[in-house]
Amino acid sequence: MSAEEEVEVPSGPVENAWAMKVPDFKPEDNPSGMVEESSFATLFPRYRENYLKECWSLVQAKLSEYNLKCELDLVEGSMSVKTTRKCWDPYIIIKARDMIKLLARSVPFENALRVMEDDQGSDIIKIGNIIENKERFVKRRQRLIGPKGSTLKSIELLTQCYVLVQGNTVAAIGPYQGLKYVRKIVIDTMNNIHPIYNIKTLMIKRELMKDPKLKNENWERFLPKFDRKVISKRKQPLKKKKKGEYTPFPPPQPLCKVDKQIESGEYFLTEKDKRIKQFQAKQEERDRQVKKSKVIQKEKREKSFKPPKEKPYNPSSASKATDVDLGALKKKIKAAQKKKV
Questions:
Q1: C-alpha to C-alpha distance for 174 and 119, rounded to whole angstroms
Q2: Structural domains of the chain, count
Q3: Residue 269 is part of which domain span?
Q4: Do 157 and 142 contact (CB within 8 A), yes or no?
């Protein structure tokens, strides 16, 4: 590396480490190459087989620039990458491993190619184990995509990352700072926090970064604070049943019809006695209804002979009503006589 291309390393603390340029690792930095061979392999689903066969020549051409070898095994359904003695970059094998993982997760080759750059990374977020209910999982995953993919597009514009939602995983490719925000948005969305809240926070932060006056100030007062509120509550019953004390013994068995007849003695009666008992019960019920109707008729008859309730006499109120203002009465009579004349 020449003296002009050397990057200045600051001696003190750095304000923005993300803004620092990472120097390129060239063959001159490691002329001896690799001593040991490193290899990684990953499986891919059957529906990706045709696409991988079409683009595998492009994958080989790209990896050959870094002196890497790759193999596609259609029998086992696997992809593998390995280093050679001429490979100079020790970390490029990790980048190649991430690229074949993304290809297996339905990421197009043009987007998976970005991982090979130094300032780009990838993150595969597993979301299948966060929610057990399948219907709820599908709804929240659709909430992350948004209507016609609008929510996913806004996340990509704010974080400068490529995001793909596929099955039980979310694949993201982009700068490392953007990947951190993408993971937070995805996890919060699956935990029932709408992505629009995090998107709004990112938009406010992007506007605050443009103002140099707010460089050394705390931004917490500008950021929105969203509290989780339980809007819908299950309706509680008006009468709650109080549970009794727990006992290990089962409740007593209820008596059947025969047991009740034995207790009352009806079971031992003959058919004739049973008919007599039923007749007596009906006769008693009839007599009771007749007595009740007689009482009601008597009350109706006596109601017309009862005097109505009168209000008690109050002499003070009666005297006030009879008092007459004589002066006002004389004036009224004189005014009436003048009108006649």
A1: 8
A2: 3
A3: 262-292
A4: no
